[in-house]
Amino acid sequence: MNNFLEALESLHLTGVRVNYFFVCPRKLWLFDRGLSMEQHSERVLLGKILGEESYPRERRRHITIDDLISIDILDNLVQEVKHSKAMGKASTMQVGYYLYYLRGLGIEREGVLLYPRLRKRKGVVLTEVMVQEIEEAVREIGKILKASSLPKAERKLYCVRCVYSEFCFG
Ligand code: SF4
User: Fold this and answer.
1) Residue whose CA is closest, atom 4 of ligand 1?
2) Where are the alpha helices (DSSP H) in the chain?
3) How many angstroms is it from 19 CA to the middle of ligand 1?
4) Is 3-169 a CATH 3.90.1150.10 domain?
5) What is the pTM of this model?
6) What are the boundaries of each domain within the chain?
7) 162 pLDDT above the threshold of 60
8) What is the pLDDT of residue 8?
């Protein structure tokens, strides 16, 4: 494993954490401190159920790498199932991070975001721009997770649907 992948492992940088960083750094910090209410949220469950039911199990393979990256492969593509396009950037960067991690292991893949409820899909390719964004994000995530204080709550459209909304603004 190269140094950068070791750094990702030391941050315990899962795809979900990358996703949360792009949604809201405060959400990432809260989740990192063990306030993982999202695991029980209906949206996460819905995503899992949609993924299970919408695509035939025999064509999907679930792989866990280094106890850190947990991905589904469908038709040779790294797939991520989402129930809505609302968090498009965060979802794209989550898949981009998986592709980036795989590249670090010498494996080149492309990805796909699947929206079964919308009957849509969106391809994800690891471009050089995305690589730079991911590396910048990793540096920022490192700073956020090491910080002893909680990032400031900044109200955004997503807050009304966030599991921490009462904690932040209640
Ligand atoms: S409620 Fe808003 S500010 Fe608070 S963690 Fe969620 S997204 Fe971030």
Assistant:
1) 168
2) 3-10, 15-23, 25-32, 42-54, 88-104, 128-146, 165-169
3) 13
4) no
5) 0.86
6) 3-169
7) yes
8) 81
Contact 86, 114 (CB under 8 A): no
Place of tokens 């035939």: 56
Distance of alpha carbon 23 from its chain centroid, rounded? 10
Structure tokens at 4: 């950068």
Annotate 39-54 with b (16+ C-beta within 10 A) or e (fewer). Answer: eeeeebeebeebbeee
pLDDT at 1 over 60: no
C-alpha 134/C-alpha 137 separation (Å) is 5
pLDDT at site 57: 60
d(CA 124, CA 135): 17
Atom of ligand 1 nearest to the CA of 158: 7
- Cα 140 from Cα 99, distance rounded (Å): 19
For residue 121, pLDDT over 70 is answered with yes
Hey, what are 15's tokens?
A: 């795809």
Residue given tokens 């969106």 in the structure block: 122
Best mutation site among 19, 20, 22, 27 for ligand 1, i.e. most ligand atoms within 8 A of its Cβ?
27
Q: Which of 63-72, 87-96, 135-144 has the lowest mean pLDDT?
A: 63-72
Q: What share of the chain is helix, strand, coil (3-state, %, to 5)?
A: 55, 15, 30
